[in-house]
Design goal:
Blueprint (H helix, E strand, L loop, with lengths): L6 E4 L5 H18 L17 E6 L5 E9 L10 E8 L8 H13 L4 E6 L3 H5 L4 E9 L2 E8 L2 H16 L11
Parallel strand pairs: 4-5
Antiparallel strand pairs: 1-2, 2-3, 3-4, 5-7, 6-7
Length: about 180
């Protein structure tokens, strides 16, 4: 695998070695580096609809990862999918790996509304694939976060058409509103 070829698997497709690599990366970054003391393994990984994406280096070591949950009970009731556990190994940051994974996830699930909880300092990463912050900044595991929402592609197209019609009538036709 190259850094530009995301792997995509569900729980039942994961090998023991792949699962170990995912857990190791997430533990190394979230628990050891960021000192997150909340439970990292929440069983959402094992749900049949959860999709895991990752990239590896030439040696096969997982360098970046994210998961997509379905029916995640988000703050935005129309959001059917939630991106989470986005992580890049410290030695591989700044190479665009998370962007590659986000793009793959949005290509697959972006036709429906999506949600994520972003560490505030990387909110711009998510904005590049269409997410917009809503609500106030908050602490999650002691780290500043923003809730971010991305309307589905169908909703974006519909809203754009409505906005064009509304603009002709003098209405702003905003396609995104915070809750």
């Amino acid at each position: 695998m190259t850094a530009h070829s995301p792997v995509r698997k569900t729980w039942s497709e994961l090998s023991t070695a792949e699962l170990y690599g995912i857990v190791k990366l997430r533990t190394d970054v979230f628990y050891l580096e960021q000192k997150v003391d909340e439970e990292e393994l929440d069983w959402r990984d094992a749900e049949p609809a959860t999709v895991h994406y990752w990239l590896t280096d030439e040696a096969g070591t997982i360098t970046a990862y994210l998961r997509v949950l379905t029916d995640a009970q988000p703050e935005h009731l129309d959001a059917r999918h939630a991106i989470g556990r986005v992580v890049t190994h410290p030695l591989h940051r700044g190479k665009g790996l998370a962007q590659v994974l986000l793009t793959a996830a949005v290509e697959e699930f972006g036709h429906e509304a999506m949600l994520l909880h972003a560490q505030s300092y990387v909110a711009g990463l998510y904005a590049r694939v269409g997410f917009e912050a809503f609500g106030e900044e908050y602490l999650e595991a002691g780290i500043p976060h923003l809730s971010m929402y991305r309307p589905g592609s169908a909703a974006q197209a519909s809203a754009a058409g409505s906005a064009a019609g509304s603009a002709a009538q003098g209405d702003s036709g905003a396609a995104f509103g915070s809750r």
